[in-house]
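Minutes, project check-in
Item: structure for the 166-residue chain
Input as provided by the requester:
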Amino acid sequence: MTGAAKRLVLEVLGWLLLLAGVAALVLPGPGLLLMFAGLAVLSQQYAWAERAVEPVRLRALRGAAESVETRLRVAISTLFSIALMVCGVLWIVKPEEPSWWPLDDDWWLPGGIWTGVTQIVSGLMAVALIIYSYRRFHGKPEAVAALEGEIEEAVEEVKEHWQHRR
């Protein structure tokens, strides 16, 4: 692959991951993780992306630590992840619309098989992230404190960068 083709592929991949991450902030899916991946790819081409990678990574880790603070949060997150995968299976199987469905038949489970596949993949990723977060942060205040220290350092670096630019 030539240098220009490689750059084009990496740029398209980076932007797609970044946009998918932004969308996943409000849709089911690991938004900050996808944003981190997109910025990591784009950081090979852009200085602004390189500066943004670490803060996004740390915010994603903070979210991971907060998601496993209590057993109730772990249970709720796990249940939602499983429910998302069950919905994905429902989308793939696509049963007939129920008699109470008020809209046109075309609006029953729109998107087809790929909607179901992405829901299942998102649910599996969520379960994997819950397991990772639980093992890394649950009941480990020293790990959370170390993460908070890293976040403070990253915030200071960003502040220094912007003050230096002025």
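Outcome recorded: The chain has a mean pLDDT of 87.
No further action items on this chain.
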